[in-house]
């Protein structure tokens, strides 16, 4: 119960929004992050400035915290296990072992009879031709850990891509080859589970990406109720199988024939769930805090349709300039010091009863025109 201390491993925007939710409930918050004055540190009580796998620093955070959580999946599992006796780690480390490694994740989903794309493990560069024969073209070669926003991936469209794919394996080690799917929409759903096992799902979001980076989320997704319910059913199966605590993000593909495929899992709040801060009765961040702290979670409802767009480095300055004349914007600036091309710097959410008008309003801004896919 508040005013207990929550320690967060990772100091980016997800940690920042977790901290804001926790602080509003009366908790103290600390963060372990190597970047001084990171986004999370700007809104919490203390920062330990050190690498995520620094055992002494992680021990210091654990000893200062009643509850420990993490804001991204690439946390060193062995380091977390070493400090488990010092604090409470409601999410455990099995969740990271599964979701932080793509082969583990795909095998977990397959074992629980959830539909995924055809895939094959590629331990060495010499194994790539056999994997391509099994999976076929077109496909995507991915590192099994550490990739995000298109990093650590290589499109495999023909035999001409074999050499560049083998180079990726030589550099990164074991990879996974996934069959590329022709899908009509990308969807996502956030799910949470309370300490007593009650699962709650958020509304299904429809996501549009530009150059492998999430550009826009539309809520509710413009799909049938049956498809939304199927996505939420998948989410419930996953949450129960993982004995989930906190929030989990689930990315899905919708194929032309109406079949849903589970693409990826994220063991923490997700970019496409940011809309929930303004559009739902409880945000994904408040749900995460309530879950890890053992508080009951209310039934989650969408109060108004919403559209959210990301602000990358190339968008932030223009958006800041327009903010004084945009009272309809819920403007979130993460406070990152270094503004870079394609770096997530913030997001904007709009809510209202006319979903099409919300979408058109962002189109009319023109800020994101350069991001259109060619």
TrEMBL record:
Stored SUPFAM superfamilies: Glutathione synthetase ATP-binding domain-like, PreATP-grasp domain, Rudiment single hybrid motif
User: What InterPro entries does this protein map onto?
Assistant: ATP-grasp, ATP-grasp_carboxylate-amine, ATP_grasp_subdomain_1, PreATP-grasp_dom_sf, PurK, PurK_C, PurT/PurK_preATP-grasp, Rudment_hybrid_motif
Which BP terms does GO give this entry?
Answer: 'de novo' IMP biosynthetic process
* Superkingdom assignment: Bacteria
Entry GO terms, CC: cytosol
Q: Which GO terms describe its molecular function?
A: 5-(carboxyamino)imidazole ribonucleotide synthase activity; ATP binding; metal ion binding; phosphoribosylaminoimidazole carboxylase activity
Q: Which Pfam families match?
A: ATP-grasp, PurK_C, RS_preATP-grasp-like
Q: Which cofactor does it need?
A: Mn(2+); Mg(2+)
Write down the chemical reaction(s) this protein catalyses: 5-amino-1-(5-phospho-beta-D-ribosyl)imidazole + hydrogencarbonate + ATP = 5-carboxyamino-1-(5-phospho-D-ribosyl)imidazole + ADP + phosphate + 2 H(+)
Keyword match Nucleotide-binding: yes
> EC annotation?
6.3.4.18
Q: Which residues form the ATP-grasp domain?
A: 106-293
Q: Does the keyword Ligase apply?
A: yes
Positions of ATP binding: 102, 142, 147-153, 186, 209, 263-264
Q: Which UniProt keywords apply?
A: ATP-binding, Ligase, Manganese, Nucleotide-binding, Purine biosynthesis
Broadest EC class?
Answer: ligase
Its pathway?
A: Purine metabolism; IMP biosynthesis via de novo pathway; 5-amino-1-(5-phospho-D-ribosyl)imidazole-4-carboxylate from 5-amino-1-(5-phospho-D-ribosyl)imidazole (N5-CAIR route): step 1/2
Q: How does this chain assemble?
A: Homodimer.
Q: Which family does it belong to?
A: Belongs to the PurK/PurT family.
This molecule's function is given as:
Catalyzes the ATP-dependent conversion of 5-aminoimidazole ribonucleotide (AIR) and HCO(3)- to N5-carboxyaminoimidazole ribonucleotide (N5-CAIR). Catalyzes the ATP-dependent conversion of 5-aminoimidazole ribonucleotide (AIR) and HCO(3)(-) to N5-carboxyaminoimidazole ribonucleotide (N5-CAIR).
Q: What is this protein called?
A: N5-carboxyaminoimidazole ribonucleotide synthase
């Amino acid at each position: 119960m508040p005013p207990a201390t929550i320690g967060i491993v990772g100091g980016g925007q997800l940690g920042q929004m977790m901290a804001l939710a926790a602080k509003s409930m009366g908790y103290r918050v600390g963060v372990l992050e190597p970047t001084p004055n990171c986004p999370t540190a700007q809104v919490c009580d203390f920062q330990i400035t050190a690498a995520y796998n620094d055992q002494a620093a992680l021990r210091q955070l654990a000893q200062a915290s009643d509850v420990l959580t993490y804001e991204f999946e690439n946390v060193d599992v062995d380091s977390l296990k070493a400090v488990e006796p010092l604090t409470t780690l409601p999410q455990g480390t099995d969740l990271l072992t599964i979701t932080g490694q793509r082969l583990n994740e795909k095998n977990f989903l397959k074992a629980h009879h959830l539909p995924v794309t055809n895939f094959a493990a590629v331990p060495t560069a010499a194994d790539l031709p056999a994997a391509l024969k099994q999976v076929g073209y077109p496909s995507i070669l991915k590192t099994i850990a550490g990739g995000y926003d298109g990093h650590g991936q290589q499109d495999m469209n023909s035999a001409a891509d074999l050499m560049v794919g083998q180079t990726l394996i030589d550099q990164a080690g074991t990879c996974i080859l996934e069959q590329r799917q022709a899908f009509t929409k990308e969807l996502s759903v956030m799910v949470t589970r309370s300490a007593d096992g009650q699962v709650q799902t958020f509304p299904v979001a429809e996501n549009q990406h530009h150059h492998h980076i999430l550009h826009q989320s539309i809520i509710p997704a413009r799909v049938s109720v049956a498809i939304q319910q199927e996505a939420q059913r998948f989410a419930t199966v996953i949450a129960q199988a993982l004995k989930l605590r906190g929030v989990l993000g689930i990315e899905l593909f919708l194929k032309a024939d109406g079949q849903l495929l589970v693409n990826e899992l994220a063991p923490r709040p997700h970019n496409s769930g940011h809309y929930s801060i303004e559009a739902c009765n409880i945000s994904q961040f408040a749900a995460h805090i309530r879950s890890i702290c053992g508080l009951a979670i209310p039934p989650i409802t969408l109060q108004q349709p919403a559209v959210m767009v990301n602000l990358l480095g190339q968008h932030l300055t223009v958006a800041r300039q327009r903010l004084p004349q945009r009272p309809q914007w819920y403007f979130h600036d993460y406070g990152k010091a270094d503004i870079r091309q394609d770096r997530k710097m913030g997001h904007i959410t709009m809510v209202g009863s006319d979903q099409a008008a919300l979408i058109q309003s962002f189109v009319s801004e023109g800020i994101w025109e350069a991001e259109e896919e060619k």
